[in-house]
Amino acid sequence: GAGVSQTPSNKVTEKGKYVELRCDPISGHTALYWYRQSLGQGPEFLIYFQGTGAADDSGLPNDRFFAVRPEGSVSTLKIQRTERGDSAVYLCASSPGTWGSYNEQFFGPGTRLTVL
Amino acid sequence: SQELEQSPQSLIVQEGKNLTINCTSSKTLYGLYWYKQKYGEGLIFLMMLQKGGEEKSHEKITAKLDEKKQQSSLHITASQPSHAGIYLCGADGRTYKYIFGTGTRLKVLA
Q: Most buried residue, A40, A93, B53, B73, by most Cβ within 10 Å?
């Protein structure tokens, strides 16, 4: 079956612009996660959805970042007024269940965002 | 908060050689995951360890979680160029948030 997909694979934008990054999780997975990976670092947690609701958005760096998952499937990460420091690979992952069941997270290929 | 430290940060080995990557946690590990990442690609799940002393193998890769559950090692036997990439350990620390190490960059010379 299909894995987690993310679009676009690469996004180049100018400082101050608005961008949207899309994640299609594995069908049936209720949990969805966004991570950000800067060069030379491991992924850092941004936000976790259980169904349609953001169960934990404590990893979002500031209010320029926002994510939605309106129908409990596809999610969009939105970044307003992009800054050069936002340049990173944004990874999406999904898992079948809820916290506590040691669910493996399945990762997408990521979107490489470059802010000029 | 929990932190994961990986060593070495980078590794270059000759094809056929064995190698070990370590992952040390600042707190007890409840679920420890090993992933492999290649440039431009997502994380590929390798193995998950939960119990102290647990050891799992897949092809030429073996991972262990020590008895105290604060350190894990990943061992590759007879390395091949296809093993090259970035190896990441991740921990869930009994939350949904994975905490990742900074990764070990492996290069295998043919």
A: A93
For the cut 90, the answer to whether the pLDDT of residue A96 exceeds it is: no
| Omega before A70 within 30 of 0, i.e. cis | no
Pick the residue of A102, A103, A111, A113 with the most B CBs within 10 A to test the interface with B by mutation. A102
Of the pLDDT bands very low, low, confident and very high (cuts 50, 70, 90), residue A56 is confident
Per-residue pLDDT tens over the stretch B9-37: 999 999 999 999 999 998 888 788 999 99
Residues of chain B with C-beta less than 8 angstroms from the C-beta of A108: 42
Q: How many CB atoms lie within 10 A of CB A80?
A: 13
**Tokens representing residue A86 in the block:** 């936002």
d(CA B54, CA B46): 15
Q: What is the pLDDT of residue B41?
A: 76
Q: Which residue has the higher pLDDT, B77 or A54?
A: B77
Chain A residues with CB under 8 Å of B48 CB are 102, 104
Contact flag B43-A107 (C-beta cutoff 8 Å): yes
User: Per the CB < 8 Å rule, is A102 touching B99?
Assistant: no
